[in-house]
Amino acid sequence: MTSFALRTASPAKTRAEAVVVGVLPGPELAPGAEDVAEAYGRKLRGLLATLGVQGKPGEVTQIPTGGTIHSPLLVLVGLGADPDANAVRRAAGAAARAVPNAASVALALPAETPEQAAAVVEGYRLGAYTFTRYKSSPPEQTAPAELVLLSPGARRKEVASAVADAQVLADAVIATRDWVNTPPGDLTPPVFADAIAAASEATNKALAKGAATVSVEVLDEERLAELGCGGTLAVGQGSHAAPRIVELSYAPEGATAHVALVGKGITFDSGGLSIKPAGSMQTMKEDMAGAAGVVQATLAAARLGLPVAVTAVVGLAENMVAGSSYRPGDVVTIYGGTTVEIANTDAEGRLVLADCLGRAAEREPDVLVDMATLTGHMVIALGDKMAGVLGDDDVVAEVLAAAKSAGEDAWPMPIPEYMDSRIKSSTVADLAQHDWVRWGGGLFAAAFLREFNRGVPWAHLDIAGPTFIKGGPSGHLTPGATGYGVATLLDLLRTRAAAGAAATEPGDAGATAPAAS
Question: Which of 45, 276, 404, 424 is catalytic?
Answer without folding.
Answer: 276
